[in-house]
Amino acid sequence: MSTTATAELFAFQRDTEALGQISGRLGWDQETVMPAGSADQRAEELSALEGILHARRTDPRLKDLLDAASPANEAEAAQIREIRHSYERAVKLPESLARSLAALSSRAQGIWAAARAADDVKAFLPTLSEMIRLKREEAACLASGGDLYDALLDDYEPGAKAADLAAMFDRMRPRLVALRERVLDRPAPEALTGHFPAEMQLRLSREIAEAFGYDFNRGRLDLAVHPFSSGSGQDVRITTRVDEGDPLNCFYSTIHETGHGAYEQQVAPRYTLTAIGKGASMGVHESQSRICENQLGRSEAFSAWLYARLSREMTLNIGSARDLYRAVNRVTPGFIRTEADELHYNLHIMLRFDLERALIAGDLEVGDLEAAWNDRFAADFGVAVPRASLGMLQDVHWSCGLFGYFPTYSLGNVYAGCLHQALRQDVPDLDAALSQGSAAPATAWLQEKLRRHGALRSPVETIRTACGFAPDEAPLLAYLEAKFSDLYAL
């Protein structure tokens, strides 16, 4: 009986996972190629599909099947764990709320994009107010009297608590600020400048994506306002963006999204369309994008290859590979999170984390958000925000309802620091491959230690198993201090 229940449970879940992939594909289409006039219909389509998914995730049969299921191995036990977690969350949410959130997030992205382009905060505030109202309602359903923000955070980093993250950020902030101040006292390195045609950037981006393990036979690279990745298994798509005056933005956005995409592509095929056929959490996911983008992609060894490769395309204003290494790690207190250097990036996340916690708790009203953002940014970065597109309108996340997502970026940096320390110990000659434009030894190590397992283990256990020690911020901070002390002769 239990064997039959297990098989029936997994078959039911497989269809749910497939429908979820279809929903994700509609979202990818919306962000890349969907006609602008299709937004209202797409919102209705996504709402209808979310209604179907919610009905499946809350189907009364699931409880009976979960109670009767008997796992035969670790993978089956993990699948049952993940299905149960999803079911217990889903049954707390009314279908009407789930559909309302799906429809609003679809419409809100277009409203946000228009407001961002026009630097018009007021045009977005009514939509954002409605989104926060719905997210508070969702959090109240999920929290069962507990912390509202924790309930939302659990959707992206199961088991994580806002208080623990806040404590970790409090430990990190003084060392980051102190290092930043020392670096900014030194002369800034020369930036890479010139005209870099879009076609060249995209061609080289494809080459770089392949070097970092992305399989174009099961994926594609497209343009988006805000780069992202989507999908799993045999259909994983990544996006980037192009600025003809700044090719590094394109290259490193591509490497970042390649880390996400290659993670999904390299989960063991036997887990495809199962509850564990995905990344273990958004923090673990971010560890894959950040280790590729920063510890590997911004390393001196890979910078040497990139300098040689760019020099074949055009004459550069930068005269050596070492100078490009300094340029790709240039520290400036910029406004845009996705373009931030490694020292400032986590400060961007801490700002968003504190503000969205206050919004969900009701301690900050939406009408006061822009002023709160600008005041905090001036305090943390020492510069005034000149316009909303460089401030509170820059990120797509809140228009999508992704409250609780932002802190996983910094958690991913912490995880990446741990993974990089272990990787360097296991693969001491890694730089030889990176200097030839290949990240293959690193991606092979990541696949063996982490990626192939998908969500087999909890996020913390995923990192602990891969590294051999519990996740901690110390390796990240040590890496940053050593790297930037060398770069800036501190």
UniProtKB/TrEMBL annotation:
Query: What cofactor requirement does the entry state?
Result: Zn(2+)
Question: Pfam families recorded for this chain?
Answer: Peptidase_M32 (PF02074)
One Gene Ontology BP term is: proteolysis
Q: Which CDD domains match?
A: M32_Taq
Quote the catalytic activity from the record: Release of a C-terminal amino acid with broad specificity, except for -Pro
Indicate which residues the UniProt annotation says bind Zn(2+): 256, 260, 286
**Top-level class of the enzyme under EC nomenclature:** hydrolase
EC identifiers of the protein: 3.4.17.19
An example molecular function term from Gene Ontology annotations: metal ion binding
Q: Which PROSITE patterns match?
A: PEPTIDASE_M32 (PS52034)
- Which residues act catalytically here? 257
Tell me its family: Belongs to the peptidase M32 family.
- Which function does this protein serve? Broad specificity carboxypetidase that releases amino acids sequentially from the C-terminus, including neutral, aromatic, polar and basic residues.
What PANTHER family does UniProt report for this protein, alphabetically?
A: CARBOXYPEPTIDASE 1 (PTHR34217:SF1), METAL-DEPENDENT CARBOXYPEPTIDASE (PTHR34217)
Q: Name the chain's protein.
A: Metal-dependent carboxypeptidase
Native species of this protein? Answer: Falsigemmobacter intermedius
